[in-house]
Amino acid sequence: MKKKRFTLIELLVVVAIIAILAGMLLPALNRARESARGSKCLNNKKQAMLAQIQYSGDFDNYYIGYMQNKANDTTAGLWVGLLSCRPDAGGVYNVQDGGYVGRASLQCPSLKARNAPGDASFDSYHSVFGIDHSPADSTRATTLGDYILARLQGPEYYVFALSRMKRPGDILIFADTLKVKNGYSFARFRCSSDEETAGVVMAHGGRTAASFADGHAAMHTGKELNAMPYNLKFWYGGTDGTVGN
How far apart are CA 52 and CA 62, in angstroms? Predict the structure, then answer.
């Protein structure tokens, strides 16, 4: 008895069915994968904020701002070094204090390395999301409190005073920024529209993972964030922060 063989047409039909099923399943798998990344990123923002809270307990209820100085006031260091301890970072970023959170918790798993838009002069060390680096603003101070304090070293050296925060649940501290092809990322953003290289990225389906001064973390669209007392600058696309190529 001869075995029946598939005809070419039958094989093509099977291949077509497989292709259709794959086309139906892959988007769902991609969405599930991105949902998992978003959850991981949100947890990372939460961990970073908990590290800030631990830090504030050791330093008179102050959160780390964008850039700080070591005790001898000779070596500048970003917030990333003070929170995560980066003794292998050379030059002025060789900050060895900290250890409140592992560097793995300062990463957004959804962001791929991209070319930086515009002028690529930026501060971009050892994190894959950014901290608020806004100058003091009278409008925000009225609503949220005059909590952004410049240190004596200069206007780029900020601390956030918890005692001056009126609504800590509305005060944005961490959000997704941009990972670039030099292997680093933008370690800051601004709650103002005056700077091209300090924006928030909507890295998760039109939303950014954000954490706030009261310790909570949540996904937000740019529109939702700007319903708070902010005027955020976004990467790529002006007002929506969608990541481009």
Answer: 9
pTM of the entire structure? Answer: 0.73
How far is it, in rounded angstroms, from Cα 232 to Cα 138? 16
- Name residue 210's beta-bridge partners: 218
Q: In angstroms, how far is CA 144 from the centroid of its own chain?
A: 21
Strand segments, DSSP code E, in 176-224 are 188-189, 208-212, 217-220
Which two structure tokens, joined as six digits, stand for 5? 């063989």
Least Cα distance to 125 among 72, 67, 174 occurs for 67
CA distance 199 to 238: 10
pLDDT grade for 90, boundaries at 50, 70 and 90: very low
Residue 171 near residue 147 (C-beta atoms within 8 A)? yes
- Cβ contact 51:101 at 8 Å: yes
**pLDDT, averaged across the chain:** 72
pLDDT digits (tens, 9 = 90+) for 145-171: 888 877 655 656 678 888 899 999 988
Give the DSSP letter of residue 115. Answer: P
